[in-house]
Description:
With about 290 residues, this protein is of the alpha/beta class.
Amino acid sequence: MPVTALVSAKSSGVTTTALALTLASKRPSLLAECDPAGGTIRAGFLQGHVGAGFGLYHLAAAERTGSVALANAFASHLWGLDEAGHRKLLPGLTDPGQAAALGRTWPALSEVMHVLADDAGYDVFVDAGRLALESGRLHTALTPAPLLHQADLVLMVVRGAEHSLTLARHLIDPLRTELAERGSGPDALGLLLIEDGPYRAHQVTEALKTPVLAALPWDPDTAHYFAHGGRPPRGYGRSTLLRHARTATEHLEATATRRRIQQQYPPRPANPQLAGVLQRLTERGGPRG
């Protein structure tokens, strides 16, 4: 299954989108909240039920000890989003100042996530937050650059409105170049369109010279629930957002598989040190509030 990183130019609903995809997937799924600016699911959707002693920041110290320690810490800091434990969250930072400690953790964390995707069949979604550049490159402190480099797909989330397309237009070419030179190739880049505005998918594709790989409807009630938690809206399980998100996960998986076949990617080398992650994830669902 693919590791899909989601980014935006500015406030385009990356976190809500990533959460919708994670909850809608037909397969086991993981959402890693890796925005260096800080996570919002802890205080929003989970309404503070997950304390600061839990989540991404605590993986930095473990990584310095070694791969096994990181794998164990990773498994210990996943939060179950459903009763069965098939959908999991790695909660994000509680303070943007914590991001500096993660600079050397990103590559090792990426490896763990690919083990989940390749060996355990997880759909892995990475909320990488707002894209930040420095001298035309991904900013090494303000973006989790290694996660984007190693992702199977990188989706820029845009809305079908002029202001969103204008902001994204200035970032698309630098990001494509970055993926060509340091990532898995320029064709890893695609768009995920939030249908909020007058522009349709074919118009957005033409405007940004980048394919729309998935589109989600503007569903304000469900989006508000994902952003703020509380009582689910009436008909939540049959909402248009979840139904289209489920279809989107299938399209993304097919796109990633097609890329692997076309590029003839060699299998990733096995890392027996990470086997404990898979065992612990399949044995228990993880804590829940």
